[in-house]
Amino acid sequence: MVNLTMYRAGLELHIDPGSRQLRVYLGGELSKTYPVAVGKAATPTPAGDYQVINKLMNPGGVLGSRWMGLNIPGGNYGIHGTNNPASIGNRVSLGCIRMQNYNVEELFPQVPLGTPVRVLSIPGYNTTGTSSYTNPGSGPPLDHRVHIVVPGDTLWKIASRYNVSLDTLLAVNNLTNPDVLEVGQSIYIPS
After folding, report:
1. Would you say the CATH fold of 143-189 matches that of 4-125?
2. Could you give phi then psi for residue 123, rounded to 5 degrees?
3. I need a labelling partner for 137 at 20 to 30 A (CA). Which of 28, 30, 78, 173 fits?
4. Is 23 in contact with 30 (CB distance < 8 Å)?
5. For the domain with range 4-125, which CATH number is right: 2.60.40.1730, 3.10.50.30, 3.40.640.10, 2.40.440.10?
6. pLDDT per residue over 22-44, tens digit each?
7. Does the annotation mark 80 as catalytic?
8. Mean pLDDT of 142-160
9. 147 noted as active-site residue
């Protein structure tokens, strides 16, 4: 295993709601995987690319022993410990990412403010446990914008809204059929 302290530059966290895992990448290489709990179907963990914006030791209660706040719009979301260890591995939260306290305590000192956090999209937030996970080097860069598909969206509407071509959206998102979009799906918009 790679020592996290040596490689703060290039550190990325990827949350996969399908497998309920948090993956730590250092320089594009998988370093460690932790089991997590994510948002339930009614309050899913929002897919997209974010950053750690604040950290707190010993917040207590449902937040467990550590809190790493994320800049997810429209709410107070974070990666945190838990007072309910049996919840790990399930879809039970209001959208936050829960970790075992001993795991979040191990990760916490290694994660500086500004660390990129990617929450992967699962079409329809399915319950099959499958994931749309791809390797970090195979997707768009972390400096792009993300549009989360809502009812009534089409790829043509999204392209028009962000003033990009349909062909560009198809290529960046590795889509073959512009007619197939699912609510909750992340569409990457090049900068």
Report:
1. no
2. -50, 125
3. 78
4. yes
5. 2.40.440.10
6. 999 988 888 999 999 998 888 88
7. yes
8. 75
9. no
State the burial class of residue 7 (Cβ atoms within 10 Å of its Cβ: 0-12, 13-18, 19+).
Answer: middle
Q: What's the CA gap between 158 and 169, in Å, rounded? A: 9
CA angle 80, 81, 87 (to 5 degrees): 110
Alpha-carbon span 170 to 66, nearest angstrom: 40
Among 14, 96, 144, 147, the active-site one is 96
Place of tokens 């709410």: 75
Instruction: Please spell the DSSP secondary structure of 102-164, one letter per residue.
Output: HHHHHHGGG--TT-EEEEPP-GGG-SS-------GGGS--TTSEEEE--TT--HHHHHHHTT-
Please check whether residue 146 is in contact with residue 140, taking contact to mean a CB–CB distance below 8 angstroms.
no
Is the domain defined by 143-189 classed in CATH 3.60.21.10? no
Whether the pLDDT of residue 62 is over 80: the answer is: yes
* Domains of the chain by residue range: 4-125, 143-189
